[in-house]
Amino acid sequence: MTTEPILSRNFDRPAARTLAGYRETGGYGAWARAQEMEPAAILEAVKASNLRGLGGAGFPTGMKWSFIPKGHAGPVYLVVNADEGEPGTFKDRYLLERDPHALIEGMLIAARAIRSALGFVYIRGEYVQPWRVFDAAVREAYDAGLLGRGLDVIVHRGAGAYICGEETGLISSLEGKKGWPKVKPPFPAIKGAFGQPTIVNNVETLCCVPHIVARGAAWFAGLGTKTQGGTRMYSVSGRVRRPGVYETSVSITLRQLIELAGGVAGTGRLKAVVPGGGSAPILTADEIDVTMDVDGLKAAGSMIGSAGVVVMDESVSIPEALLVLARFYAHESCGQCTPCRESTGWIYRMVHRIVDGHGRKEDLDTILDVARRGAGTTICAFYDGAVGPYISYIEKFRAEFEALIPK
Amino acid sequence: MPKLIIDDREIEVEAGTNLIEAARRLGIEIPHYCYHPALSIAGQCRLCMVDIEKTPRPTIACNTLAADGMVVRTDTERVRETRRSIMEFHLINHPLDCPVCDQAGECWLQIYYMKHGLYDPRMVDEKVHKPKAVPLGPHVILDAERCILCSRCVRFCDEITDTGELGIFNRGDHSELALFPGRDLTNNYSGNVVDICPVGALTDRDFRFQVRVWYLDTARSVCPGCARGCNIDVHVNRRRPHHAEGRRVARLKPRFNPDVNAWWMCDVGRYDQHGVVDSPGRLPVPLGRAGAAQVEVGWEEAVAAVADALRAHGPEAVAVLASPHMANEDLMALRVVLERAGVRQVAFRVPPAAPADGDDFLLRADRTPNVRGAELIGLDGDAAAILAAARAGRLRALWVFDHDLTTAGWPAAEVAEALGRVETLIYAGAVASATSARARWVLPTATWVEREGTLTNFEGRVQRFRTALEPLGRSLPAWELLGRVLAALGGTPPGPRAEHWFRALASAVPAFAGMTYRTVGDGGQMVAGAVPGGAPVPPGRRAVVGAAG
User: What global pTM score does this model have?
Assistant: First the structure.
């Protein structure tokens, strides 16, 4: 399945990274059109387009925007989540590096829709090159008068914490505090950054907005499934022949996507796939005939998350793969909520012991029980994200774990 | 006002009340660690889960406001199971060193484990290790392994004192409470972090390893350290006299009073006030002078001699320096004694050598507890004139309460001259001093924890303090020895208890009219005409910078 490239249309045109080059491809045309539109009309278009958040949660973008309190007298902030940190995900990096003005244009339109005069772009600390490219584009946009006349943009670099990609953790960090997610309610749209209504959107999500305005909500909605419009950028990595970012319709199946990336590398025989970033429950080789949209993967017991697809061939040890993730979650848990802080470390130690050959018979059930007990008890979704792999790796590949446990 | 149902019982609460407080009103305890009514909602410990009708899973009660028609259950199987899980998570890395932990006996990990935990431990891996016995400041010491990272202390330093010494550093199960680099926990409210710490992570350096909390007895009291009169509990050790090197007062803890000190007390009050009780300088017995030496005498002899001194010399030759450390009952008894003896020269304002400063919260510059009471009872004479009269040789008898005149803010030579010219110097107080050493008669008084009484704070709030200990040796409450002097002068004390003197005060001084110990109660009562100002707003709440919670 191939689709007309939309988000990635400029990836092969280095010139598009400059303002002039971007304009040559029709860039900022949508912004010109949006300026003729009432904010409410932009919001309606985004709602009708079925655009869903592409950072991980898949929340309908138009609905999110509509939560800004009507008649709020103070400032409203637009925050771009460019803290791309989900294991196996690197599509926002491509957008920032290869089409930076698309994000600025998306921000201009979104800011108009939510009546925001100040936008923050929170870029992952390790993303040095994306920051350089995007920051240069922001300066160009200021020089050209696109920014600074109704919308100011502050580019903020993170310091390297996964949790700062959680929208309220990001807000805490932006405010100069430790990047701890905030208790909800209040939700950011009511009381977000610096106590003001705030919309946090992912880079890719905002990059869709100019196309919705330029070509119409119906066209955008028609690109996807009934419940999710548009295309999506899949980061495909692991044992595939041509790893990379692939933009296709969200109605593509996982099997087709792996084919698109050149098929399974290594042994050539598929063992398992992580379909939506590290936090997505793993799928076995028999479970890859699912559509890669929010609802398709939900029905398959996993999640599309950030659309980071990690392919594992038969040579991959699932216990070792879980160890990598368990170490990641233990390291990245912000430590705020007791269940997450304590069980991510505990489970890591148990998995580590099993992989080291010192597992005990009861360990696997203890991990499953501990994971289930903590699920749904925390401030943010971090721990629920960790629970997905803990449970699915062990349940679907239990024999592999048991083989490591001394009799 | 929202009306809701908690565990089948209906209750109406003010809008803005969270479910922990709403349940508390019904006598239902929702277990929690990070929630504290004086601090912002952190929602971190995850223990206060309750089931709310139409909510898919248990919800934290601290961050849920009572809403009309809400149906809450705190006792479902799911809630109990969640609590058990959360308790297990809290304890897997806890050192379980209760036998050597000062918090044992008042630790919320112990209490909640017994109430809500009781699971079979299954953590076999090495626990996370963190710094232990780290002094944070002059009063507080940290065991980071015991810390459950509830962040109450961090929020206290941010939101109450506005000093921000503490933070939680690192991530995951390596998260660690610590001081910010270059900082020490030296704010004047540091002891409060020990009170609000639900576990043994933060303990008092002066209480550490002294006595087990289950040997302590408690009396409701009032801090005598300044004119605010913070409400406190006095914790005393009467059951293990061989512990704590024989010190009977183990510690002072603030007691909630929304109109005076809220939940807090300052370190000056907490750590500097009770030393006097067990001080080696305490005066345990009445003394009389035999030549150069002071020797023990009986109360009868001392009281008779004091009565004689008041009577013998005539009003112009007798003066009294009362003290604002004396309780209302003492001051009333003194007033009656002076009326009986016809003595009119009385004052209480002896200047301190160095005037103290107040701070920006509870501590007042006036470091005495009862100036207002002494004023209202009518003892506010001219102390400097009494000093001058003594120097001029016009005084034959001078009765000094509590003050050490040799360290007061008067020139030492003038004090020496005055004391040298007074024929009969009488001293009443708890602790020996250069002044008591020069006295003809020394009358030992009981300290404030060894008796009961009332104090009138700077706003005019009359507050009770209760007896926590027996008076040391043969010392007596000042009101009682004054009653004995009154009897020796032919008068009749109003009764055998402090309360009788309070009643006498209420009928004699209009500001106290109608008051009884009952009406004063535990929260205090304003004297007539005084307007309560309420507990001061904490420094950290005055300017709200960055309203984001």
Answer: 0.94
